[in-house]
Amino acid sequence: MSENVDVVLIGGGIMSATLGTLLKELDPDLKIVVFERLGDVAQESSNAWNNAGTGHAALCELNYMPDAANPAKAVDINEQFQVSRQLWASFIEKGILDEAKTFINATPHMTFVRGEKDVAYLRDRYETLRKQPLFSGIEYSEDSRVINQWAPLLMQKRKAGEPFAATRVPAGTDVDFGAITRQLFAHLTNNGVDLRLDTEVKKLKRQSDGSWQVRYRRRIGSAPGQINAKFVFVGAGGWAIKLLQSSGIPEISGYGVFPIGGQFLKTTNPDLVARHQAKVYSQAAVGAPPMSVPHLDARMVDGDGALMFGPFATFSPKFLKQGRLFDIVQQVRLSNIGSMLKVGLTNFSLVKYLAGELLKSHARKLDSLREFMPTAKAEDWELIQAGQRAQVMKGGKLQFGTEVVASADGSIAGLLGASPGASTTVSIMLTLIDQCFADRQDEWRPLLEELIPTLGKRLNDDDALATQTLANTAGALGINP
């Protein structure tokens, strides 16, 4: 006889951890089971060394604002990150998360560009953003002495006469999403949530009563099992598409995903770490996906400092870092093959970029680093393999956002896509709750407003509210610059 529960969460990452915690706060009586195919949570994209740990608020990422005069997307990303900050602050106050320094640290966000064209663009971008309340602290300079004070490793032994410029926002952050994930799951398991590690979900089947039969197998020496759930969330990273396809919901028709991996150069040399306390982003190469914007990042993981530079794109047919070689083939359906072929035929610049990245030697990767940091020495840096991302393909286009795919009746939902991902998890999960638990919105709204005081309000439209909210969350999270 099958076990019956209210909610099944598939995947042990930041998305499932956040959704599970929100649902448990909203209704403590919910019976929730979590399945994770690996031996611990936060081992794929949520792991600190599988991402850059940037609190994505569009403070430094140029791909969120390709038109220097149009800040709409940058503002929207920032708004979503402020929602995450408010929830984390509330979770600390309630004892759900540990003290803030265990997962978030003040780290200035910078953008650094070279060449007259990019300097002119960055200057225009600065003039646009400094008028926005959420970006009011942004600074701009073309003065090498000022930029040297902000990030000395960028300027040492740089060629004279080269046009360059930088922006800086002191209030940026470095976030260890793996730490948040582990802390949230620790809270969940202490409050009755059943976390089943080393357990892979194999198939989802809709039952006659509208619930879902979740078929699973322990990865080591156990017979298959099944469980019935009223609601299923598929937060399994790149594998989400495979499970959503197995569910048979029509909403997944036409979707495909394209896997892109990444590598970073990493150093823990204490002298270098001490001299670069910032996250510095620049322009992406022609044809590069937005997740491949080069950046030199200060990181703080488990209390230890490091620097990361990259990413360097890699290719694998796997949808997860610990996926399977046939993942890319097994997603093919009649409904998506045309779209996938069109993506391949119309994205020559991406194909060319990936080919160039795959051919890069270790020495050439160090040369890329030296464009940021002219004094970089090979002996200080090691190459590490980062996470695997699955970019959405739909309608013949390759998309670079994060998308919720939910059934019409709201009984199942999954997440496809990548950046900005983890930083906007809370907003994404609130959208999902709106879609899938619509009948409980009136009951749950007051509880959500206690956790997120500005829920439903646009901070950037209210200068006073933005200033007060930023100050409140900065104080609560201990991230005053």
UniProtKB/TrEMBL annotation:
Q: Which Pfam families match?
A: Mqo
Which reaction(s) does its UniProt entry say it catalyses?
A: (S)-malate + a quinone = a quinol + oxaloacetate
Pathway assigned to this chain's UniProt record: Carbohydrate metabolism; tricarboxylic acid cycle; oxaloacetate from (S)-malate (quinone route): step 1/1
Key words of the record: FAD, Flavoprotein, Oxidoreductase, Tricarboxylic acid cycle
EC number(s) per entry: 1.1.5.4
Domain of life, per lineage = Bacteria
UniProt GO MF annotations: L-malate dehydrogenase (quinone) activity
Cofactor(s) in the UniProt record: FAD
Q: Which Gene3D superfamilies match?
A: D-Amino Acid Oxidase, subunit A, domain 2, FAD/NAD(P)-binding domain
- NCBIfam families, alphabetically? mal_quin_oxido (TIGR01320), PRK05257.1-1 (NF003603), PRK05257.2-1 (NF003606), PRK05257.3-2 (NF003611)
Which HAMAP family has this protein been placed in?
Answer: MQO
The similarity comment for this entry is: Belongs to the MQO family.
Q: Which PANTHER family match?
A: L-2-HYDROXYGLUTARATE DEHYDROGENASE, MITOCHONDRIAL (PTHR43104)
Q: Would you tell me the protein name for this molecule?
A: Probable malate:quinone oxidoreductase
List the source organism: Microbacterium amylolyticum
Gene that codes for this?
Answer: mqo
